[in-house]
């Protein structure tokens, strides 16, 4: 069991650790805690993102049918979705979906260099 002051950790399998680190630090403000050619540990607020390259134990232990970038995604809350979309498009990033609006807010999907999904989400005004 974790305590409320611990970070929430997510592991993403990536084919190029350096490219993933560059992507998350440059575009989303993650900070590098640990990095090697096979693995990196980066954080943003309470989210700890573990980036595991092909030679890492995290990637080696993954069954083959689950290796592909997947259906799960990290969810980053933003204050101004349109401004974030403009900023990231200007930086050369492309999106995997159009903006979707629902009762809880608006969201858009993009991927990291390995194809892992990232959701940018702006909550609805209450």
From TrEMBL:
Q: Which InterPro entries match?
A: Anthracycline_SecMetBiosynth, Glyas_Bleomycin-R_OHBP_Dase, Glyas_Fos-R_dOase_dom, VOC_core
Pfam families associated with the record: Glyoxalase
- Domain of life, per UniProt, equals Bacteria
- Residue stretches making up the VOC domain: 6-123
Q: Which CDD domains does this chain map to?
A: VOC (cd06587)
Which protein are we looking at?
Answer: VOC family protein
């Amino acid at each position: 069991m974790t305590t409320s002051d611990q970070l929430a950790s997510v592991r993403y399998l990536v084919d190029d650790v350096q490219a993933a680190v560059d992507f998350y630090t440059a575009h989303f403000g993650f900070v590098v805690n640990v990095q090697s050619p096979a693995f990196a540990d980066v954080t943003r607020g309470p989210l700890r993102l573990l980036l595991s390259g092909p030679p890492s134990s995290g990637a080696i232990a993954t069954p083959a049918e689950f290796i592909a970038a997947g259906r799960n995604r990290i969810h980053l809350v933003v204050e101004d979705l349109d401004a974030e979309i403009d900023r990231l498009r200007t930086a050369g990033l492309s999106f995997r979906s159009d903006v979707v609006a629902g009762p809880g807010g608006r969201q858009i999907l993009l991927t990291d260099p390995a194809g892992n999904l990232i959701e940018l989400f702006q909550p609805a005004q209450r």
